[in-house]
Structures are given as C-alpha cells and as structure tokens.
Write a structure and sequence with these properties.
The chain is an alpha/beta fold and 332 residues long. The protein is built from eleven helices and twelve strands. Strand 6, helix 6 and strand 7 form a beta-alpha-beta unit. It is elongated. It starts with a helix and ends in a 9-residue tail after the last helix. The structure holds alpha-D-galactopyranose. Alpha-D-galactopyranose binds next to strand 5.
Length: 332
C-alpha cells in the first residue's frame, strides 16, 4: 500500500512538473496583416503557419485593416498570453502607438513589409524589420520594361511609361522611383514617363489611378506599366484593356508573388507581361522563426533584412519559383 502511495505521489509530481514546464515553454505568437484579402499576405500567413506547425506553437493570425483593429488585436493577443507578433501595419504612422501598446503588454514586435515611421517622419530603426530590396527590385523592373519594348522594336517616342505609385509608403516610393530612374538611365524619354497615383494598393486603386493618367494622355499608342506591387500593375492593365489596349500594346511588369501569377494562368496573353517574384516564404516563415527565437531564447533578430526579387514571365515562373523553394505559393 505504502509503495502504491509513493508511486502515485511520484506520478503526481511528474505530471505537475511536466505541466509547469510546458506552461512555461509554450510560445504563442501573433501575425497581423494590413490586407488579408491580398494573396501576398495570405501566402505570408501560410508560411508563418508552416513554421508554427513545425515547432508546435500557437499562431494567431488577424487581419488588421485599420488602426482601431490593430489596437484591438494587440489587446486580444495580450489576453491570449501571446509573447510577440509580426505585423504589416495598415498605416506606417501608427508605429509609435503600436510600439507603446506592445511595450505596455510586454509583447515583442517584428515588422514586415512596411516599416514604421516615427513622430519625426523618419523610419523607426530600432524595431526589427524585414522588407524587400525595393530600390534594386524597382530598378530591375524599369530596365526589363525598357528591354522588352526594345526587343519588340517599339518606337519609344510614341510609347508611354505609366508608373503607378503610392508615395506615402516608403517601400513603394523606393520601388517606383527606381523604376523611373531605370527607364531614364536605359534611354527612355523622360517626358513620356507618367506617374499614376493609387490611393489604395489593390486592383481597384491601380485601375482608378491609371484611368486618370490614360484620360490625360489619349495620344499614346503603346504603354509600359510598372508599379509598387502586382495589384497596382494589374489595375492599370485592366484600365488599359478598357481603352482597347492588349498584350500587343502593353508591357506590364508587376512585383509580388500572388495575383500576378494568376494573370499568367489566364488563357492567351494579356498586358501583364512579367513580375518580379518576391518571397512570401522568407517574409512569413523566417520572420516568425526570428520572432520565436527572440521570445524563446532571447536571441535578438537582425534589425533590417532586405529580400530579393527575380523577374519571371508566364514562360519561366513555374521553374524559377520552384527553384527558389516557392512551389508552395504557386496558384493551383
Ligand atoms: C507592401 C505592399 C504589398 C507587398 C509588400 C511586400 O506591403 O503593399 O503588396 O508588395 O509590400 O513587401
């Protein structure tokens, strides 16, 4: 009897220790994104979840489309005993408020895609950030637009270059400034470069911005299109289609790894010619891993990581993306 009691006691002790241990070890993280309907962010979430499943942690994914939703989401995460979150904020100027709130709840913050801007208007550099090499990628896109037009023997004097931008966002401005820069450096006439403004970074936003530019420039015969993301370029391509332009008179090059790939899957050829494929794997899986190691082991992540882009066309995207380990984000 005594032996049974001792055995029970040891078992109980074991259970208590095991429970206490796992309660202490259990990591819970959040991943907040500004546009949950955008494929790019869905793929980020997918890869973040992949990491969470591999290490067996909880990941709470919340779409936070405005400032109020971000603040509520942080409260929600804190209530669920989350220790940190990755965020692509709906407005970079919310940065200081997000940091303050996260600090008050003892949550670590890792920014992805869009870097916080401080009260002084400068980027916040003391919060870890993973973004894309915007200037390099934009430059490659501008150059590729020019080269394709040259290859097709287009007369540059009757060709317009529409660059769809959203200058409030540092990363988008860097991309589109570099696109214009590359076009000019390649020899494209600067007077034929037109900036279209998209109020929102989705397809309707790109389309509205492009329609204004097209109405103002009715004599242009052929168009090159670049922008801050795939949605902006697709929106412009749709606006051009509305005015009778097609794959023979439009060369659009996007930037992303989502909506643009769906354009490639459409039958025939349209004005969406290529895209610079960026990595939702790195922005989802790797950010979550870095945050996890920070929370779990106190290992500070690098403050700034910039990822690359690779220009792909409808002929090359499957091969290139598979080689880049992005086969999982190819549309089915
Ligand atoms: C910004 C854009 C997104 C995507 C990411 C990539 O957040 O709005 O569409 O391009 O950058 O970093």
């Amino acid at each position: 009897m005594k032996l049974v009691k001792i055995a029970c006691f040891i078992l109980l002790l074991f259970v208590l220790i095991a429970n206490g241990y796992s309660a202490e070890q259990k990591v819970k993280l959040g991943f907040l994104v500004k546009q949950p309907e955008e494929l790019w962010f869905q793929n980020e979430w997918k890869f973040a979840q992949k990491f969470a499943d591999e290490v067996g942690i909880d990941l709470i994914k919340i779409g936070t489309t405005d400032g109020e939703k971000v603040m509520t989401a942080i409260d929600n995460l804190a209530t669920q005993k989350v220790q940190g979150f990755v965020i692509c904020t709906p407005d970079v100027r919310l940065g200081p408020a997000i940091i303050k709130k996260a600090n008050s709840k003892n949550l670590k913050v890792f920014t992805v895609d869009d870097r916080f801007v401080g009260a002084d208007g400068n980027p916040v550099e003391d919060v870890p950030y993973m973004g894309i090499s915007s200037t390099q990628i934009g430059f490659d896109i501008g150059k590729a637009c020019y080269e394709e037009a040259k290859k097709r023997g287009w007369n540059m004097n009757e060709t317009g270059a529409m660059v769809v931008t959203h200058d409030e966002l540092e990363t988008i401005k860097q991309r589109t400034d570099a696109e214009k820069d590359a076009l000019i450096k390649a020899g494209f006439p600067a007077n034929n470069i037109f900036t279209a403004v998209n109020k929102t970074l989705d397809v309707p936003g790109g389309m509205d911005g492009a329609n204004v530019t097209l109405t103002q420039n009715p004599t242009i015969k052929k168009w090159l299109v670049a922008g801050g993301n795939e949605e902006s370029v697709i929106g412009a391509v749709r606006a051009l289609e509305g005015k009778g332009f097609d794959g023979n008179t439009t060369i659009g090059i996007g930037l992303g790894a989502g909506a643009g790939l769906l354009e490639f899957k459409k039958p025939g050829v349209n004005g969406f010619f290529a895209t610079s494929a960026i990595s939702p794997y790195r922005h989802g899986y790797e950010t979550t891993k870095l945050l996890y190691e920070w929370v779990k082991d106190g290992k500070k992540p690098p403050m700034k990581t910039l990822t690359a882009g690779y220009i792909v066309t409808r002929e090359t995207y499957v091969k290139t993306m598979t080689e880049l380990g992005l086969a999982d984000s190819l549309p089915k």
